[in-house]
Amino acid sequence: MYAFEFHRPTSLRQAASLLGKAEDGRLLAGGQSLLPMMKLRLASPGTVIDLGAVPGMTGIERKGRSLVIGAMTRHAEVETSPVVKEAIPALAHLVSVLGDPAVRNRGTIGGSLANNDPSADYPAACLALGATIVTNQRRIAADDFFQGVFTTALEEGEIIVKVVFPIPSRAGYEKFRHPASRFALAGVFVARRGGEIRVAVTGAGDSGVFRWHEAEEALKGRFAPKSLDGLTPSTEGMNSDIHADAAYRAHLVGVMARRAVERALRR
Question: Do 200 and 210 meet the contact criterion of CB atoms below 8 Å apart?
Answer without folding.
Answer: yes
